[in-house]
Design a protein that fits this description.
Layout: H1 2-28, E1 54-64, H2 67-80, E2 84-91, E3 98-105, H3 110-120, E4 121-132, H4 134-159, H5 165-197, E5 199-207, E6 220-230, E7 239-250, E8 254-261, E9 275-285, E10 298-309, E11 313-328, E12 331-343, E13 348-359
Helix pairs in contact: 1-4, 2-3, 4-5
């Protein structure tokens, strides 16, 4: 019985292939009015006309002025054409100097994309190939038809009955193998048809001037307005107004500041010099409150120490709480309050409030 099953399966496969080949020849043979080819005659075989199926793939290397401008425009053009960007890599952030893109788009739109890139820059290298896979698809269709016919014959054999268990298992193994082949060929067909429906382009962009060095601040110089309020002024003026300069070596981490306040009479009523507070110190952001990364309203705390002059030379110690009102990469506007101790022969306690702006240099 095993020999019979194997013989049937072999015959089915051979008959399927022969039947398909016969059918392909019949489809192109004349059906009337013409003479059929006779074996041994000199007339050549009639070729089957297979529609052309092109799989388009290519790569482009383009040198442009500014990548930051061209990448969004290229993406919009591809999407408008009915395609999509499946991979995008841009190097250089705000001053991008290279980009790699892989796009899929309808074959008829490939020339439009190439023309767009040619207008926006210089095409240094272009490789576009169109591979005809029509014969491969045709052969796959024949193979699928043959395998499906063989599978159906084996199903019919199973329904006839009278088979022993080993014979049933043998037929099931053969059917499983055929199903696997069918699924494999169908998967290959789906891949080829997807590549036919959408062309694939690898696009490499670079700036004509090469890499851009991103500017980094060396320091943040600025100016501030300040007000000193003494807690226990005695016979002196409680409020004093002034301004100063500030230089951050690294924003918030370290800064040097000098505040100069207006002249006021001393405790004896005599004329006095300007009040001066010059300090060195730093501050830190809170990770729980944005870590200084927000565009506005970044709180910070700090401490400062230095020189003070208020009717006499003194040691200045300050504890600081501040808020950045507005922040960009190259400018910061902030306000702060500093509890201030001026320690000397006659010590003073006060509060210095200020508002200032610093700029990247």
């Amino acid at each position: 019985m095993n020999a019979r099953i194997l013989g049937i399966a072999s015959c089915v496969a051979i008959a399927s292939c022969g039947g398909a080949a016969y059918k392909s020849a019949a489809q192109v043979a004349p059906t009337g009015g013409g003479s059929a080819a006779v074996p041994g005659s000199t007339a050549g075989p009639i070729a089957t006309q297979i529609p052309e199926q092109l799989m388009i793939e290519g790569s482009l290397t383009v040198e442009v002025g500014e990548i930051g401008d061209i990448v969004p425009s290229l993406r919009a053009l591809v999407e408008q054409a009915g395609g999509r960007v499946i991979n995008e890599s841009v190097t250089g952030a705000e001053t991008s100097w290279s980009a790699q893109l892989k796009v899929r788009l309808p074959p008829a739109k490939v020339d439009e994309v190439v023309a767009f890139l040619a207008k926006r820059g210089d095409i240094l290298d272009k490789h576009i190939t169109a591979t005809d896979v029509s014969k491969q698809l045709f052969d796959q269709d024949i193979a699928l038809k043959n395998l499906s016919t063989t599978l159906e014959r084996l199903r019919q054999l199973m329904t006839q009955g009278g088979l022993k268990v080993p014979e049933i298992l043998q037929i099931e193994n053969e059917m499983t193998r055929l199903r696997g082949q069918i699924e494999q060929i169908e998967g290959e067909q789906r891949f080829l048809k997807d590549r036919i429906a959408l062309a694939t382009l690898d696009i490499s962009l670079s700036r004509k001037e090469g890499a851009v060095t991103v500017a980094k601040a060396k320091m943040y110089p600025g100016a501030r307005a300040a007000m000193l309020m003494l807690f226990d002024p005695g016979s002196r003026e409680r409020m004093r107004y002034g301004g100063g300069i500030v230089v951050h070596s690294l924003l918030r981490a370290m800064s040097f500041e000098v505040d100069i306040f207006q002249k006021e009479p001393d405790a004896m009523g005599a004329s006095a010099n300007n009040t001066v507070i010059a300090t060195l110190g730093g501050a830190a952001y809170s990770d729980f409150l944005g870590g200084g990364r927000r565009r506005s309203l970044n709180p910070y705390l700090g401490a400062r120490v230095g020189y003070g002059y208020l009717d006499d030379h003194k040691l200045a110690i300050q504890g600081e709480a501040g808020l950045e009102l507005w922040k960009r990469r190259n400018a910061v506007v902030d306000v702060n309050v500093r509890a201030t101790g001026l320690i000397g022969k006659e010590s003073d306690l006060g509060l210095v409030t200020g508002a200032g702006a610093t700029f990247a240099f």
